[in-house]
Amino acid sequence: MLAYTPYDGATFIAFAEPGAAYPGEADLWVRPRDAARVAIDLGKTGAMGSAIGEARPQTLILTHDDDDHIGGWEHFRTTATFYAAWPDEIWIPYEWAAVVSIAGQLDFESSDDEADEMTVIARISRAVRVVNSGWAPEDADELKETDPLEAVFGGPADEIRSRLLRLRGDERFAKIITKALDAVAPGVITDELGPAGDVADRVVSSANRILNILETARTVGIRVRLFSVDHAREAGPSPWRTVGKPGLVTIPNAREVVWRPRRRQRRSLAHFAVAFALSVQNRRALTVLLWSSPEEGTSKAMVWSDSTGNWANDPATPLPVELLTLTTAPHHGSENTAHTAAWSSLWTASRDLVIAAVGGSSIQQVHGAFLAVPVTQRSCTKCRHTTGRPNRGTLVVEVLPSMPARLTTAHCVD
C-alpha cells in the first residue's frame, strides 16, 4: 500500500456557512501534483461565493440554475475582481445559452402564448453542434478557437437586458411563465413564492443573472464551455471518459456542444418561458466526476448536484461506480423520490464509499439510504437528521488514487 503524501491524490472540500439556514452547495477539488483547482457551484450566500473566489479555481463548473447553487455569484465576481484571479474556464448547461439567445430575440407582439416542451427542446438542440472526439483534428481545433458566446449574444448585452426587464410586472408573461414552470419543472413554484407576478419577477432576475455570468466571462476573457444532457447519448466514447478535461474532471451525463444556430429569428414569450423552465429542471443538472490522478483506472469522486441520476444505468452514459471512493449524496441527501435512480446506481459501489451530504435545507428530510451508511463513512455540512447536533461546517475528504477515501473532518455521530 502506497504511503500518502500531499502530492498523491486530491482533496475534496465542501464549504459551509454554519450560521446560515440554507447555505447551499459550493465545492472545491484540489489536486496538488499538478496544482489543479476545480470549483463546483457557488452556494446560496455571499460567503460561499467568496470562499470559492478566494480559492482561485482554474475551472468553475456551474451545474444548474438554482439559488442554492449559484446564488453566490455576485460575491464570487467581486472576490475574483479584487484578486484579479479569474477562472480560465466556466462550464455551464447549454440551456443557459438558449435563455440568453432567446431573450435577445423576444417578439413582444407575438400572440402565441403556447409552447410545447419537446418542440422547444428540438429547436434548441438544432442550434448546437456536438463536440465529438471522433472529428478530424482540424474540426476540433476550429471549435476550440470559436467564441461560443458570439452566436449566443447576437448583439449588445444591454439590449438583451432591456428586453428581460420589460417582462417585470407583465401580467401576460406572468401567466405564461407560471404555466410553463408548472408543466416543465413541477415543484419549482411553491406557495412561498407568492402570486404569479412575483414568480415572473424572480424569473427575470434569474435570467438576468445568467446573462451577467456570460457577459462577465466574455468581458474578462474566460472560455465558456457548454454541456448538453440532451445530447449525452450521441455516438462516441462514454462521456465520463472524454467529456470535459479527461484526467482531471469530466461530465458523465452530458456532451459538450457549441452554439451554432442556423439563423436568428423572433421568439415568443412562451418559447422563452419554456426555455427558462428547462434551465431549472433538476434532471438537467450537470453531474461532475473528479479524478484523483490522470490515470483512468484510479479512484474518482462524484458531485451529483441535483441530477436525478436517470442516466446512470444507461449503457450510453455509464457511471464507473467501481471507481468511486467518494460521492456527494444525491440532491443534498434529501428524501426525494425523484432521485431514486441516483441512489440505486450506488448499490454496487465499494463498501468503503464515503458519502457527503452537502448543502440542503433544514426542512428537507434526510434520505434513509444516507443514514444506512456506516457513520464513519458519512458526513455533512449541516446536520439535518437529528436535533441537538453540531451545526457542522466545511467538510474535507482526502481521495487517494488506490486507497479508500478518508474523512478528515468529523463523521456523523449517529
Structure write-up:
With 414 residues, the protein is α/β, with parallel strands linked by helices. The chain has one domain (10-407). The chain has helices at residues 46-55, 67-70, 73-83, 94-103, 117-126, 137-145, 148-153, 157-165, 171-184, 196-220, 239-242, 269-279, 340-344, 368-371, and strands at 10-14, 27-31, 36-40, 59-61, 89-93, 128-130, 223-228, 244-245, 249-250, 255-259, 288-291, 300-303, 324-328, 354-357, 378-380, 395-399, 406-407. It has a ten-stranded mixed sheet. Helix 1 packs parallel to helix 3 (73-83) and helix 8 (157-165) runs antiparallel to helix 10. It starts with 9 loop residues before the first strand and ends in a 7-residue tail after the last strand.
Helices and strands in order:
Blueprint: E1 10-14, E2 27-31, E3 36-40, H1 46-55, E4 59-61, H2 67-70, H3 73-83, E5 89-93, H4 94-103, H5 117-126, E6 128-130, H6 137-145, H7 148-153, H8 157-165, H9 171-184, H10 196-220, E7 223-228, H11 239-242, E8 244-245, E9 249-250, E10 255-259, H12 269-279, E11 288-291, E12 300-303, E13 324-328, H13 340-344, E14 354-357, H14 368-371, E15 378-380, E16 395-399, E17 406-407
Parallel strand pairs: 3-4, 4-5, 5-7, 12-13, 13-14, 14-15
Antiparallel strand pairs: 1-2, 1-16, 2-3, 6-10, 7-10, 8-9, 9-11, 11-12, 16-17
